[in-house]
Amino acid sequence: MNALGVAPGRAGINRVSFSDADMAGRRWLMTRMADAGLATWMDCIGNVFGRWDVSDGPAVMVGSHLDTVVMGGPLDGTLGVCAGLEAVRTLQDAGLTPRRSIVVVSTADEEGRFGGMLGSQAICGEVGPDWIAAAADSDGNRLSDALSTQGLDPTGPVAWSPESIAAFLELHIEQGPVLERAGEAIGLVDAVSGVFNWTVTLTGEANHSGTTPMDHRRDAFRGLADFGHAIDRIIAEAGGEQSRLTVGKATLSPNFPHSVAGTASFSIIGRDADESVMEALAEACRSSLAAAAERHGLGLDIVKHSWLKPTRLDAGIHQRLCRLCDRMDVPYRTLPSGAGHDAQTFARHVPAGLVFVPSAGGISHAPNEHTEWESIRPGANLLAQAVADLAL
């Protein structure tokens, strides 16, 4: 899979949602699913499914996503999709026939290029044509245009009924350092942090850097810097141990060495496992941004792209995974996830479980994202055991 998305002059894997590389990855997956004898299709927004069809009743769904961030890593999402397909192939190789159908899924735009987690939210009926028609990425590209360009249908039906999914399982790298530091093979996630996603624009006045006195400037960059300096205070006053605030993308205009910045546009991503804390963080961000804008004579605009609530995962699935780990004699721990995952969306509608394997150095969303195969194997085997346990 990771041969698709290697771009000349760019490090890492580049399968950004609805790019040609992303779609090539989806088509490649469909051929491998068909090779395994699965009924295979892509829905109207790019979700890919492979179904081992043995029953009309609710199916066990397993998978993750194939899209990456720009210059992303080889495992985030991709591991969960490929391990889900391999779990099915392993059951087939063992000559087992499930009582429940098994569906391997690769969701669309999990990385949130257009806000939220499009694929899993659409499957679960949380977003539909109206949301898709209004969605755009941080560069102003419309989701409906991106879908149409790739031959997909932004108005088509994609939602599954909750009664059609018996459970959802996902394997993922931890994207953090906890398991590696503890020397533990597996993390069983009990809760996933919520996420809010904003784009903020501060508008001042572009001017000459040599002739404009410091006390006459309406410098948008200084407003951005002012907010950035306040992040530690916001976390200390409004947040907690699981709180995260990140400015990950920023653009200045005119973006020229000898010009005062007239506009600064930047992202704010906030996370916490408690929605009341998320609300406090969001309010503190709004207040700090307003104060920074007033101090520097700037206009302020906040576009709120998405608000994903924190989610508790299914206790019954979690207990089942614990029992399987005990049976396999594999050390594990229960922990929350600071990053959002498809399992978070599914858990709001159907029983869902999320399994972590360690990340080397806690690094993800970067070219040097890595986990040794010896560290992946216990989680992959647990996923296969869990699929078998639920389907057989």
UniProtKB/TrEMBL annotation:
Which co-factor is required?
Answer: Zn(2+)
Q: How is the cofactor bound?
A: Binds 2 Zn(2+) ions per subunit.
Q: Which residues bind Zn(2+) 2?
A: 76, 111, 365
Annotated keywords: Hydrolase, Metal-binding, Zinc
Q: Which residues bind Zn(2+) 1?
A: 65, 76, 172
Recorded GO molecular functions are: hydrolase activity, acting on carbon-nitrogen (but not peptide) bonds, in linear amidines; metal ion binding
PANTHER family attached here? ALLANTOATE AMIDOHYDROLASE, ALLANTOATE DEIMINASE-RELATED
Q: Which family does it belong to?
A: Belongs to the peptidase M20 family.
Protein name per UniProt = N-carbamoyl-L-amino-acid hydrolase
Task: Name its species.
Answer: Thalassobaculum litoreum DSM 18839
